[in-house]
Amino acid sequence: MEYLLSPVTKPVENSKSVVEAKDTDVSSEKPEQSITAVVSTSKGLAVACSPGIVHWFERIEESANPNTTSTAGIHSSKETYRLARTIRVPVDPTSSSDVDRLSNQKITHLVVSPSEELMVASTDAHQIYGFSLGNMELSMKSSEFLHRNLVSASTQGQTLPYDTINFEPIAQVFHHGQILGLDTCIRKPLIATCATDRSVRIWNFESNTLELSKQFAEEAYSIALHPTGLYILVGFSDKLRLMNLLIDDIRTFHEFPIRGCREVSTLVYSFSQSSANFVH
Protein backbone atom coordinates (compact mmCIF):
# COMPACT_ATOMS: atom_id res chain seq x y z
CA MET A 1 0.00 0.00 0.00
CA GLU A 2 1.42 3.37 -1.03
CA TYR A 3 0.74 6.72 0.66
CA LEU A 4 1.19 10.07 -1.07
CA LEU A 5 0.79 13.55 0.42
CA SER A 6 0.29 16.25 -2.18
CA PRO A 7 -0.84 19.86 -1.68
CA VAL A 8 -3.42 21.48 -3.91
CA THR A 9 -1.46 23.99 -5.95
CA LYS A 10 -1.69 25.43 -9.42
CA PRO A 11 0.91 24.24 -11.95
CA VAL A 12 3.75 26.61 -12.77
CA GLU A 13 3.57 27.88 -16.33
CA ASN A 14 7.25 27.80 -17.33
CA SER A 15 10.80 27.69 -16.06
CA LYS A 16 10.95 31.47 -15.73
CA SER A 17 8.08 31.36 -13.28
CA VAL A 18 9.95 28.70 -11.31
CA VAL A 19 12.99 30.95 -10.98
CA GLU A 20 10.84 33.91 -9.93
CA ALA A 21 9.04 31.77 -7.36
CA LYS A 22 12.34 30.60 -5.89
CA ASP A 23 13.63 34.17 -5.69
CA THR A 24 10.45 35.23 -3.91
CA ASP A 25 10.75 32.41 -1.37
CA VAL A 26 14.39 33.24 -0.63
CA SER A 27 13.74 36.96 -0.27
CA SER A 28 10.79 36.48 2.07
CA GLU A 29 12.74 34.15 4.39
CA LYS A 30 9.68 32.97 6.27
CA PRO A 31 10.30 30.87 9.39
CA GLU A 32 10.05 27.15 8.87
CA GLN A 33 6.79 25.61 10.03
CA SER A 34 7.16 22.61 12.33
CA ILE A 35 4.56 19.87 12.83
CA THR A 36 3.29 19.94 16.42
CA ALA A 37 0.46 17.35 16.37
CA VAL A 38 -1.07 14.75 14.05
CA VAL A 39 -4.37 12.85 14.19
CA SER A 40 -5.94 10.53 11.62
CA THR A 41 -9.50 9.46 10.83
CA SER A 42 -11.10 7.10 8.35
CA LYS A 43 -11.73 10.06 6.04
CA GLY A 44 -8.48 11.96 6.26
CA LEU A 45 -5.49 13.23 8.17
CA ALA A 46 -5.12 16.40 10.29
CA VAL A 47 -1.64 17.90 10.69
CA ALA A 48 -1.07 20.82 13.10
CA CYS A 49 1.65 23.33 12.28
CA SER A 50 2.76 26.53 13.95
CA PRO A 51 1.40 29.09 14.33
CA GLY A 52 -2.10 27.79 15.07
CA ILE A 53 -2.75 26.08 11.72
CA VAL A 54 -4.22 22.65 10.99
CA HIS A 55 -3.97 21.25 7.47
CA TRP A 56 -6.68 18.74 6.58
CA PHE A 57 -5.65 16.11 4.04
CA GLU A 58 -8.59 14.36 2.40
CA ARG A 59 -8.19 10.63 1.84
CA ILE A 60 -8.55 9.53 -1.79
CA GLU A 61 -8.57 5.86 -2.65
CA GLU A 62 -7.24 4.98 -6.08
CA SER A 63 -7.24 1.57 -7.69
CA ALA A 64 -3.80 0.47 -8.81
CA ASN A 65 -2.87 -1.20 -12.09
CA PRO A 66 -4.73 -4.55 -12.18
CA ASN A 67 -1.65 -6.17 -13.71
CA THR A 68 0.40 -5.22 -10.63
CA THR A 69 0.19 -7.60 -7.71
CA SER A 70 1.88 -7.73 -4.35
CA THR A 71 4.09 -10.55 -3.08
CA ALA A 72 1.02 -12.16 -1.48
CA GLY A 73 -0.73 -12.32 -4.85
CA ILE A 74 -3.21 -9.52 -3.95
CA HIS A 75 -3.68 -6.48 -6.14
CA SER A 76 -1.98 -3.51 -4.46
CA SER A 77 -3.86 -0.26 -3.82
CA LYS A 78 -2.74 3.32 -3.52
CA GLU A 79 -4.05 5.93 -1.07
CA THR A 80 -3.50 9.59 -1.85
CA TYR A 81 -3.98 12.35 0.72
CA ARG A 82 -4.93 15.67 -0.90
CA LEU A 83 -4.69 18.97 0.98
CA ALA A 84 -8.31 20.10 1.04
CA ARG A 85 -8.70 22.60 3.89
CA THR A 86 -6.73 24.78 6.28
CA ILE A 87 -8.22 25.40 9.73
CA ARG A 88 -6.86 28.27 11.83
CA VAL A 89 -7.04 29.15 15.49
CA PRO A 90 -9.06 32.40 15.72
CA VAL A 91 -7.71 35.61 17.19
CA ASP A 92 -9.40 36.91 20.33
CA PRO A 93 -11.60 39.79 19.04
CA THR A 94 -11.12 41.68 22.32
CA SER A 95 -7.32 41.66 21.98
CA SER A 96 -5.25 44.46 20.51
CA SER A 97 -2.90 43.43 17.74
CA ASP A 98 0.26 44.88 19.27
CA VAL A 99 0.10 42.80 22.45
CA ASP A 100 -1.85 39.78 21.23
CA ARG A 101 -0.34 36.36 21.86
CA LEU A 102 -3.42 34.46 20.75
CA SER A 103 -2.63 35.24 17.11
CA ASN A 104 0.60 33.24 17.42
CA GLN A 105 -0.50 30.13 19.32
CA LYS A 106 1.04 26.71 18.90
CA ILE A 107 -1.29 23.72 18.83
CA THR A 108 0.06 21.12 21.25
CA HIS A 109 -2.59 18.37 20.99
CA LEU A 110 -5.21 17.19 18.49
CA VAL A 111 -7.94 14.63 19.19
CA VAL A 112 -11.00 13.41 17.26
CA SER A 113 -14.19 12.09 18.88
CA PRO A 114 -15.05 8.38 18.42
CA SER A 115 -17.85 9.33 16.01
CA GLU A 116 -15.34 11.39 13.99
CA GLU A 117 -17.68 14.39 14.07
CA LEU A 118 -15.64 16.72 16.29
CA MET A 119 -11.96 17.63 16.33
CA VAL A 120 -10.56 19.35 19.43
CA ALA A 121 -7.27 21.26 19.64
CA SER A 122 -5.43 22.56 22.70
CA THR A 123 -2.76 25.27 22.51
CA ASP A 124 0.23 26.48 24.49
CA ALA A 125 -1.79 29.59 25.42
CA HIS A 126 -4.13 27.44 27.58
CA GLN A 127 -7.01 27.59 25.10
CA ILE A 128 -9.28 24.78 23.83
CA TYR A 129 -10.91 24.94 20.40
CA GLY A 130 -13.27 22.65 18.51
CA PHE A 131 -14.26 22.12 14.90
CA SER A 132 -17.10 20.09 13.36
CA LEU A 133 -15.77 17.70 10.75
CA GLY A 134 -19.31 17.21 9.42
CA ASN A 135 -19.56 20.91 8.55
CA MET A 136 -16.23 20.71 6.76
CA GLU A 137 -17.47 17.86 4.56
CA LEU A 138 -20.52 19.92 3.56
CA SER A 139 -18.29 22.91 2.79
CA MET A 140 -15.98 20.75 0.67
CA LYS A 141 -18.92 19.34 -1.32
CA SER A 142 -20.25 22.87 -1.91
CA SER A 143 -16.85 24.08 -3.13
CA GLU A 144 -16.52 21.10 -5.46
CA PHE A 145 -20.01 21.77 -6.87
CA LEU A 146 -19.20 25.42 -7.56
CA HIS A 147 -15.89 24.50 -9.11
CA ARG A 148 -17.48 21.89 -11.35
CA ASN A 149 -20.39 24.06 -12.54
CA LEU A 150 -19.17 27.65 -12.43
CA VAL A 151 -15.50 27.45 -13.36
CA SER A 152 -14.62 29.02 -16.72
CA ALA A 153 -13.33 27.01 -19.63
CA SER A 154 -9.92 28.69 -19.41
CA THR A 155 -9.32 27.25 -15.95
CA GLN A 156 -10.49 23.74 -16.67
CA GLY A 157 -7.96 21.21 -15.48
CA GLN A 158 -6.56 23.41 -12.72
CA THR A 159 -6.99 22.21 -9.16
CA LEU A 160 -9.36 24.07 -6.89
CA PRO A 161 -7.43 26.03 -4.21
CA TYR A 162 -8.22 24.94 -0.67
CA ASP A 163 -10.20 27.21 1.66
CA THR A 164 -9.30 28.50 5.11
CA ILE A 165 -11.77 28.23 7.98
CA ASN A 166 -11.54 28.83 11.75
CA PHE A 167 -11.82 26.82 14.94
CA GLU A 168 -14.43 27.80 17.53
CA PRO A 169 -13.72 28.12 21.28
CA ILE A 170 -15.09 25.15 23.23
CA ALA A 171 -16.24 27.36 26.13
CA GLN A 172 -14.71 30.85 26.13
CA VAL A 173 -11.30 32.42 25.73
CA PHE A 174 -9.35 32.17 29.01
CA HIS A 175 -6.38 34.11 30.34
CA HIS A 176 -3.12 32.97 28.77
CA GLY A 177 -0.97 34.65 31.41
CA GLN A 178 -0.59 34.58 35.20
CA ILE A 179 -3.56 36.08 37.07
CA LEU A 180 -2.34 38.98 39.22
CA GLY A 181 -5.60 40.37 40.61
CA LEU A 182 -9.01 38.95 41.54
CA ASP A 183 -12.11 40.27 43.27
CA THR A 184 -15.73 39.23 43.76
CA CYS A 185 -18.95 41.23 43.77
CA ILE A 186 -21.29 41.32 46.78
CA ARG A 187 -24.62 41.87 45.02
CA LYS A 188 -24.03 40.06 41.73
CA PRO A 189 -22.47 36.67 40.84
CA LEU A 190 -19.43 38.30 39.25
CA ILE A 191 -15.68 37.77 39.49
CA ALA A 192 -13.17 40.25 38.06
CA THR A 193 -9.65 39.17 37.07
CA CYS A 194 -6.59 40.78 35.53
CA ALA A 195 -3.49 38.98 34.28
CA THR A 196 -0.06 39.38 32.74
CA ASP A 197 -1.65 39.01 29.29
CA ARG A 198 -2.82 42.64 29.82
CA SER A 199 -6.49 41.73 29.80
CA VAL A 200 -9.32 42.40 32.25
CA ARG A 201 -12.14 39.86 32.34
CA ILE A 202 -15.50 39.73 34.11
CA TRP A 203 -16.85 36.24 34.82
CA ASN A 204 -20.27 34.98 35.94
CA PHE A 205 -19.71 32.15 38.43
CA GLU A 206 -23.37 31.02 38.34
CA SER A 207 -23.55 30.46 34.58
CA ASN A 208 -19.79 29.76 34.27
CA THR A 209 -19.49 32.20 31.38
CA LEU A 210 -17.31 35.14 30.40
CA GLU A 211 -19.37 38.33 30.63
CA LEU A 212 -16.84 40.95 29.48
CA SER A 213 -13.25 41.03 28.30
CA LYS A 214 -10.93 43.80 27.20
CA GLN A 215 -7.27 43.98 26.26
CA PHE A 216 -5.12 46.95 27.29
CA ALA A 217 -1.73 48.25 26.23
CA GLU A 218 -0.46 48.37 29.83
CA GLU A 219 -0.16 45.53 32.31
CA ALA A 220 -2.76 45.43 35.10
CA TYR A 221 -1.47 44.58 38.60
CA SER A 222 -4.62 44.76 40.75
CA ILE A 223 -8.39 44.93 40.42
CA ALA A 224 -11.43 45.56 42.63
CA LEU A 225 -15.17 45.30 41.95
CA HIS A 226 -17.73 47.78 43.27
CA PRO A 227 -20.44 46.07 45.39
CA THR A 228 -23.07 47.01 42.79
CA GLY A 229 -21.11 45.30 40.00
CA LEU A 230 -21.24 48.44 37.85
CA TYR A 231 -17.67 49.69 38.29
CA ILE A 232 -14.16 48.32 38.61
CA LEU A 233 -10.95 49.89 39.86
CA VAL A 234 -7.82 48.65 38.10
CA GLY A 235 -4.22 49.43 38.98
CA PHE A 236 -2.10 49.63 35.82
CA SER A 237 1.60 50.16 35.46
CA ASP A 238 1.08 53.82 34.51
CA LYS A 239 -2.20 54.88 36.17
CA LEU A 240 -5.05 53.85 38.43
CA ARG A 241 -8.28 53.73 36.41
CA LEU A 242 -11.92 53.74 37.47
CA MET A 243 -14.07 52.06 34.81
CA ASN A 244 -17.70 51.48 33.93
CA LEU A 245 -18.89 47.96 33.15
CA LEU A 246 -21.18 48.40 30.14
CA ILE A 247 -23.15 45.78 28.24
CA ASP A 248 -20.38 45.10 25.72
CA ASP A 249 -17.41 47.18 26.86
CA ILE A 250 -15.21 48.21 29.79
CA ARG A 251 -14.77 51.98 29.58
CA THR A 252 -12.58 54.32 31.65
CA PHE A 253 -14.27 57.43 33.06
CA HIS A 254 -11.67 58.61 35.60
CA GLU A 255 -7.91 58.23 36.02
CA PHE A 256 -5.62 58.75 39.01
CA PRO A 257 -1.91 59.57 38.47
CA ILE A 258 -0.69 56.65 40.58
CA ARG A 259 1.78 54.19 39.05
CA GLY A 260 2.29 50.50 39.76
CA CYS A 261 -0.62 49.98 42.15
CA ARG A 262 -0.21 46.41 43.43
CA GLU A 263 -3.20 46.22 45.79
CA VAL A 264 -6.58 47.93 45.64
CA SER A 265 -9.89 47.40 47.45
CA THR A 266 -13.28 49.08 47.10
CA LEU A 267 -15.87 50.19 49.63
CA VAL A 268 -19.36 51.43 48.86
CA TYR A 269 -18.36 55.02 48.13
CA SER A 270 -14.60 55.07 48.54
CA PHE A 271 -11.52 53.04 47.80
CA SER A 272 -8.08 52.51 49.27
CA GLN A 273 -4.97 51.54 47.34
CA SER A 274 -1.30 50.91 48.02
CA SER A 275 1.62 51.87 45.82
CA ALA A 276 5.19 50.86 46.71
CA ASN A 277 5.46 51.55 50.48
CA PHE A 278 2.58 54.03 50.65
CA VAL A 279 -1.14 53.59 51.35
CA HIS A 280 -3.48 56.28 50.00
UniProtKB/TrEMBL annotation:
Any Pfam family hit: WD40
Q: Spans of biased composition, class Basic and acidic residues? A: 19-30
Q: Look up keyword Repeat and say if it applies.
A: yes
Tell me the SUPFAM superfamilies matching this sequence: WD40 repeat-like
Each WD repeat, start to end: 190-213
In this chain, the stretch annotated as Disordered covers: 1-30
What is the official name of this protein in its record?
Uncharacterized protein
Q: Which organism is it from?
A: Paragonimus westermani
